Every structure is written in C-alpha cells, then in structure tokens.
Amino acid sequence: QVLLVExxxxxxxxxxxxxxxxxxxxxxxxxxxxNWYRQAPGKQRELVASITDAGSTNxxxxxKGRFTISRxxxxxxxxxxxxxxxxxxxxxxxxxxxxxxYSSTYYxxxxxxxxxTVSS
Length: 120
Hints:
This protein has strands at about 1-5, 10-15, 20-25, 30-40, 45-50, 55-60, 65-70, 75-80, 90-100, 105-110, 115-120. By secondary structure, the protein is mainly β.
C-alpha cells in the first residue's frame, strides 16, 4: 500500500508561484514513477508532470518551462514547483504513484487533491 497526502495549494495571482508537496508513505521502495495530474471543472484529468525512479522527467506542453517536478527521497516527498502561473492552471492537483507489485503487476495510488486557483 502507498499513502499520498498533498499540500500547498491555494489562491495566487497570475504570474505568481506555488509549490505543491505530496508526502509519500507505505511501500515506497517499489514505486517506479510518480506523477502530478490536474483536473479543471468540466475538463478531463490531465497529466502535468512525471518523474521516474531513475529521475527522468516529462511535462505536458502547457507547463514546460514553468513547472518543475522533483522529489526528496530523504523526506519521502514529491514536489511540483509552479512558476508564472496562469488562470488556465486553475484546477485540483493530485499526485499519483505507480507501484510494481507481485507478478509484474502495476498498482496506482492517488492523493486526495489540492485546489490551485489562479486569479487574473
């Protein structure tokens, strides 16, 4: 099992910054990748950024150059640094973990989400 708890959301003006955190606990050693997703009202959930256990990162085109995903293994925490925020970044942001289980089966875990609101 893996437990994910996000924090750091809030209200910010356009052009501002926020840093989201996702505290990870449980069977951490078998996590192979972690992701940040977001979902705005009336829209489909979108993959924002990913980081593998090897440290490789990927970003949605809409956030490249503005957002940075990182992790601190000593604190068991995943981060999303968000700079130059735009009103269209407004959404509920959730972290997600991909864990390798028995028989090469992958399991996926979700946090409860944190609201990010960017005012114009």
